[in-house]
Amino acid sequence: MVRELLQEAGSAPFEITHVTRLSEAVRCLGQDGFDAVLLDLGLPDAYGLEAVDPIKNAAPAIPIVVLSGHQDERLAVQAVQCGAQDYLIKGRESGELLARSIRYAIERKRMEQSMNHLAHHDPLTGLPNRRLFLDRLDQAVARTQRNRQILALLFLDLDRFKAINDTLGHEEGDRLLKLVAVRLRASTRASDTVARLGGDEFAVILPEVDRIEDVIRFAEKIFHMLAATFDLAGRHTEVTASMGISLYPADGQDAETLLRNADAAMYRAKQHGGNIHEFFVPAVYMQVSKRARLARDLQHALEREQLDLHYQPQVDLRSGTLTGFEALLRWRHPELGLVPPAEFIPVAERTGLVIPISGWVLKNVCAQMQAWRGEGLPELGVSVNVTGRELHEGSLVARASKALQDHGIEPLRLDFEFTEGSVLRNQEDSLRTFRDLRQAGIGLSIDGFGTGLASLSHLMRFPFNSLKIDPSLINGVAAGDDHGASTVRAVIAMAHTLQLQVVAVGVETTDQVSFLRRHECDRTQGFYFGHPLPAEATTGLLRGGLRWDQT
């Protein structure tokens, strides 16, 4: 009957395999070569729609057209809900209707598979995405639990991927991600799962592992695979990765916990310089958990007015005169109390929140200077710390100029402080920004000198006004360290040769003050001269006059 109808419709050449029992159909579908299934609901070994599931399980990629002797709209809807692509009534179908139904069923199945693939796979690399990855990890955990084996989860993050995007362009960055995906797939077994979780993050599920040594060997295999250079934009580019590893059941009983702990271990590997693997340890999770909380709460710190500025005095060592302040950011967390800048500023950098926070700092520093001037108080300078992300983000000059203009502050009253590391990260970019800042009249200082890799001669190409000696060197002077004292003397002498003002930071004792005066350090700040003060207390200090009273 079906053959005659399709011949009548003039369909393309076709072959039909006819079976009369569901069990025979399931057995036949185990073979290749079928494009569609016409399923009669009147089979002797199945009742109604209960035949759909076995057919679907036997051949999930093949569309099903249900044939029924009953005109029942409810049954038709149920058939589609069970997984069929169409529903026809026997005896009422023409050859043309049957042929069209089969064609449409095949096309619908293809569309369904395409949509399903897009929903569960990364469009760039074709790897499983986070959704499919977590589903497979859940299944792998369940199997491992039954087999009483070990499961390993490897979390990879490419080192310095942003630099590749910035220097070679996003197109080459995408090309690198695809090449890494190809190499990862080539390094794994058929039973393993490789996924791209987003950005430059990849994950690998290693089920049925017998020994930890096997996991280590596989991690080393991945590092060896990445060690071969990648051809990007006509260059041989070296790429490394940081890897975190968590194990089931020791490091988590479910997919989300295992992934979170592998991520924490990866971050630890990143902190150690990258290109290594680290296994999860609970102490690492505590650090990452706190960091995640800070990142979440920091998003609301501005709108909830939890940020504040304190001002630490800077004093001229020759005259004892107050010359200005360093503005220091404080975060009064409602539950954690006062969060140190060393904890939340790196979080702000990683999340990008440092840009709006920086805007708030500039606005409030300029507003405070305007308020002091309005009271007729001395117009002293204020220095502000600038992070590497702000330096290289591109809008620093415009944001600073606007804040100064909005409050009528002369640019020479504002000084920006930069660390050695942020300056040297992208020297050409830094140099352009520094030239624009100097042209705008804003002062530039190198902060924390003596802790990084830069030498004074290295910094000569940058237009700094002053240099701040790191407290670790000043501590050496107090401890009677001859080498430390010699280093500080040399830094002061060389900085003066380069016509840089020298500021000693972290001064706490009379001996340190005497030493710095003897060797003609220009200015200083530290607990000896005063702790950082809230704006109101700083205003009171200015009202008391500029001459510093050491008592």
Task: Report on this structure.
The chain has an eight-stranded mixed β-barrel with strand order 11-12-14-15-16-17-18-19, surrounded by four helices. Strands 5-6-4-9-10 form a five-stranded mixed beta sheet, sandwiched between helices. Strands 1-2-3 form a three-stranded parallel beta sheet, sandwiched between helices. The mean pLDDT is 85. With 551 residues, the chain is an alpha/beta fold. The longest helix has 26 residues. The protein has three domains: 118 residues, 3-Layer(aba) Sandwich (Rossmann fold); 151 residues, 2-Layer Sandwich (Alpha-Beta Plaits), CATH 3.30.70; 253 residues, Alpha-Beta Barrel (TIM Barrel). The chain contains 22 helices and 20 strands. The protein is elongated, with a radius of gyration of 35 Å.
CATH superfamily of the largest domain: EAL domain
Q: What's the Cα radius of gyration?
A: 35 Å
First and last CA, distance: 110 Å
CATH class of the largest domain: Alpha Beta
For the report, how would you describe the main beta sheet? 8 strands, mixed, barrel
Beta content comes to: 15-25%
The number of helical elements comes to 22
